[in-house]
Specification:
There is one protein chain. The chain is of the alpha+beta class. The strands form two sheets. A four-stranded mixed beta sheet has the order 1-6-5-4, covered by helices on one side. A two-stranded antiparallel ribbon has the order 2-3. It starts with a strand and ends with a strand.
């Protein structure tokens, strides 16, 4: 197995446009385009909102009906109050309940703060008001095809985790010397054609399979 985290010198020719890896090109417009395709966590937000609405509605109905002298439903406060009064903080049940509630709270905070994995790969454009993207699966397939153009590569697949590109290739050659560099160059050319909005370093892994 041969790993190649990157080959220096690959990238757009000077004068043809900003290089994806140039830190000076990471302008607010580019960062806005990248954030545009991030999921908004709609499902967790909707579920949390529905739960809060349901609880708030029950509380409001109970309070209003009690004020009118006709309570619709009286929560069994005495059950919880009795359990809380008779259970010390260091009891396993109290610790477990607190831990579960804390985990639920942390999970909700994480869902709200941590951006989801975008389904589209943002691309560069000359218009700062134009947001263009390509499906990550389509981009990965195009990069995998570029990797298979290298002589000796039997198959390849590409993953696009956040902020990088991982290429895994299979070769029938016993000595894959030079193949990772050729794959990196081929994938870099295809990546230059796609023109992603941010720098995506390429990691190439070549595995031998078969005999020659």
């Amino acid at each position: 197995m041969t790993g190649l985290p990157g080959v220096p010198g690959e990238g757009p020719t000077p004068g043809e446009g900003p290089e994806p890896g140039d830190t000076h090109t990471q302008t607010p417009q580019i960062m806005t385009k990248i954030r545009t395709f991030r999921p908004k966590r709609m499902i967790p937000a909707v579920l949390t909102a529905l739960a809060l609405i349901a609880v708030g509605t029950l509380v409001a109905v109970n309070v209003i009906s009690t004020m009118l002298g006709r309570p619709t439903w009286t929560p069994p406060y005495h059950l919880f109050a009795g359990w809380a009064a008779s259970t010390p903080w260091q009891a396993p049940a109290a610790l477990l309940t607190g831990a579960i509630l804390a985990l639920i709270g942390l999970l909700l905070i994480a869902l709200a703060l941590v951006p989801g994995r975008p389904k589209l790969l943002p691309l560069r454009s000359t218009d700062p008001d134009l947001v263009v993207g390509v499906k990550r699966g389509v981009a990965g397939h195009a990069l995998a095809v570029a990797a298979t153009r290298v002589d000796g590569v039997r198959s390849a697949w590409v993953r696009l985790p956040r902020g990088r590109i991982e290429v895994s290739a299979h070769t029938d050659l016993r000595d894959p010397h030079g193949i990772p560099e050729q794959i990196h160059a081929s994938v870099s050319r295809e990546l230059e054609r796609l023109a992603p909005a941010q720098d995506l370093p390429i990691k190439v892994t070549v595995r031998h399979r078969g005999t020659t």
